[in-house]
Amino acid sequence: MSFEVYIFTSIYREIYFTTLASEREREMSIEVERKFVGDANSLKILEAIGVFAGQYQFQDRYFDTPQFDLTLRDFWLRQRKGCWELKCPLAPVKEARKSQGEPSGADKLCTRYQEITNVPDIHLKLKEVLKRLVKNEKTLTTESCQTLINHDGLGIPGMNNTPDMFWASAMNLVCFAEFTTIRRTFTLDDGVHIDLDEADFGYSVGEIEVLMPEGGDMQAALDKIERTAKKLGVTGDQGVDGKLSVYLQRNYPAHHARLLSQHIL
Ligand code: V4E
Asked: DSSP labels for 108-124?
């Protein structure tokens, strides 16, 4: 990946995060989003009300243990553009359902995850989640992680053997999904972002997204998403599958069925 591509693809996050107070918030944000099926009409409206922020391509590689210990707990670890990202549920699934009851209306159509991008924090969180399964208890320092994530071998087959992957391998994490996406991004003046994605395995999906700091106003984020969906003419009360869900359905049907039965998807 060239430096120019990296800069270009980072514009969205940089614009958003310049409004945040600290590096810590930058690396631990909350992502609220709603998927939708885009059509010619929604694209026309988007072009009229949004600012086109660019089209770019990226590769995602998702990791889990061979027993899917992470995804079965609603944790999603990936490398995108060579950088590690971990999406974590805001509350353990069962506890959240117990305390909040079944979500309804627009609320039900939105997902909320904490996104961690700092590698030592990712490592700590994974150790916490995987607990006894972790073989290597050594905590990485920011410096050692920086060296690892700058390693040239990113994205090549067999990379589980590269230094970049040593901590993931020590945690018994393997790549289970790999695909490329072409993304067009639009921004609205209230800070909402809309992505139109085309994955290379033949699936297209749109997402309306709001990023906020931890402890931010969740209801305001949900309201923004709801207003944007209405503006785009996005109707219906059925959830729309994300790219990885469809990938799992096609490539790991038994695991997909299990995630559905446990209400993780
Ligand atoms: C499957 C999944 C996650 C991994 C993929 O996250 P997703 O938001 O689909 O990624 P992407 O590339 O479309 O968006 P970006 O990260 O660039 O904003 S994270 C959470 N899940 C579970 C999940 C779910 N239960 N329901 C829906 C509609 N989507 C995802």
From this structure: HHEEEEEEE--HHHHHH
